[in-house]
Amino acid sequence: MEVNISDPLFSKQWYLVNTGQADGTPGLDLNVAEAWRLGYTGRGVTIAIMDDGIDYLHPDLASNYVSTTPAVLHPSLRRSLQWLVVVGL
Length: 89
What we know:
By secondary structure, the chain is mostly loops. It has one helix and two strands; from the N terminus they run αββ. The chain has one helix at residues 32-37; strands at residues 49-50, 87-88. The radius of gyration is 16 Å and the shape is extended.
């Protein structure tokens, strides 16, 4: 499957395909390009994003909750702390 990206801001989304932009480490990304090449699209998948009020002690979340701040891993994450209180399922 050929992957064509038409998003004009795609090159700024280092977490999708990291080529070293924003002082990142090339290859340290979500590896989505390979998933797209294999035909995975996400069609039929349901997700939830909760912006606040997360019960991190809930049995379904407790063993998977990470309370440390990975902002130290990448300087570009320090610009906004909004992502610290967002959980994706």
